[in-house]
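To assess whether the prediction recovers the assembly geometry, we first specified each molecular entity separately, as shown.
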Amino acid sequence: MIPRLYVPGDAAAVAVGADEVAAALRRNAPDVAVVRTGSRGLFWLEPLIEVATPQGRIGYGPVARADVPGLLAAGLLDGGAHPLRLGPPESLPFLQRQTRLTFARCGIVDPRSLDDYRAHGGGKGLARAIALGPAAALEEVVQSGLRGRGGAGFPTGIKWRTVAATAGARKYVVCNADEGDSGTFSDRMIMEGDPFVLIEGMAIAGFAVGATQGYIYVRSEYPHAIATLEAAVAAARAAGWLGDNAADCGFAFDIEVRVGAGAYVCGEETALLDSLEGRRGQVRAKPPLPAHAGLFGRPTVINNVISLASVPVILAEGAARYRDLGMGRSRGTMPIQLAGNIRHGGLFEAAFGVTLGELVDDIGGGTASGRPVRAVQVGGPLGAYFPRALFDTPFDYEAFAARDGLIGHGGVVVFDDTVDMAEQARFAMEFCAIESCGKCTPCRIGSTRGAEVIGRIMRGDNVAANRALVADLCDTMKFGSLCALGGFTPYPVMSAMTHFPEDFAGPRIAAAAE
Amino acid sequence: MPEDWDADRAAAVIAAHAGREGALLPILHDLQAAFGCIPPQAIRLLAEALNLSRAEVHGVVSFYHDFREHPPGRHVLKLCQAEACQSMGCRDLAGHVGARLGIDMGATTPDGRVTLEAVYCLGLCATAPSAMLDGRVVGRLTPARVDALLEGLA
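The predicted structure of the complete assembly is given in tokenized form:
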């Protein structure tokens, strides 16, 4: 048997040298099959390579190109001893503590091989959906309690039900793969590591609501994801999974990959629809809901990547298995992304309910810099900054909302004690100004004025009055903006001012000394 | 290397998308891939082909950060400046690179060698600070590592 090595082709692994490692392995061990997988999501160990042995896979990492000859000499192909040997990846605590449902195959399978996908349980969800019929398949998604993983947390099944009940000559399933939030990469990882699960989820959605065309709108900043998706869609079409007779079951459904053009606001669903139609990505007023009049005015399911990628396992294993995990109204698992200044950064899929403190201190191992954790931003650039005092907050939509925060798309960005929270608050406003679509005034103008006023506070200019002005402006943006960009920018700003008031007290010590 | 403007070539790029729903963005991506930017001459062609006003086409081109009205330098370095990279020192890194190249963010070196741009998230947030050089992703950047990358550029 030809020895098999697995080297991630995930962009984050590539960014730290996985391509060079793969090339060195092919050069030094020409008789070995090197399979490019996605990533397991333990990024501090990337490039993490694995070898297939009779006892299962054995991992090594982080591997540099220069380590390759030594690894081979140490018996890498038989799982031999070496300082970089990690043992079976599944035995690593970071993976052991997870409940991987959506990410069950990510980092394990060849993402471009439909056969590999099927060999690892792929396709069962669609098969069961077809056996159940559209109405019962849809009901499974409702019963699972799955809520939109893009950030808004709207029940996915209810959205589908609305589209199914709306008459339309043509309906669409749109996948929102415009994952622009800093600190998030779960969409990217699944698209690069297990794209067929997304395709299967979209096919189930199409079957359940009677849609015939799907679009995946993926951001241009993700070239690896785009390439993998294109290959997977072509393979699914060639295998008859997509097309006029999808899955050999007499329903027509096809998918096209569309590439964004660097506009953060296109992650907002109605702006995304306008962008797909070939327009400026400007937010639409609701109603009408996209479910009633979405893409080209037709009934449209629009869901985040992870929402759709979670559907196959729900159908395959039944709604109850998913619904029984989690807490409160947050059911199932959430792929949480540990990012920024963190020792063990990566993808941690777990049932809802794990606390922020467990995630940051215990699972994440504290900061990468070794300095104390000062602030954690949860939920992307529109998410609140939480201090250590709020580390008992469980990962749950409602628990974060109750503390004036949000879980958003599940990104957790850790900052050490060198962070300047006024600078972070000002950046939140600047980012909103850069990315505002310009349609509504509170967002378009408020963001620029907000950045200016916070700048005045930082210079020590009329601090008390300007702090009150920022709070008032945030109030206007929160309640007067058309979408979450202007509406949620107050979260990072106000949380920074509330929890870290000492950073908004006037000029910096260093600046004052000048 | 980007091609010089050629109306026939542009027309062929546009025609390849005939009949596609909402074709403007895919066409713009292909035009930019061919010409390095969206030349002003393309606006009129697009307006005619898609039955839009020139103002509408210009509105779309100018809305998206990706579309350029002028070709960039021979190399494009996009440094992530979003929060996860901020937590790992990307502001200082940007300062270092800017000083080394002698340009501000968004500018091109006078010799046309490098265009330096800010990008807001490459999804490489657990290997920060991150960047993209001519489409190639790089993570765990340090000033020395960026210097080495810039060193090798023609």
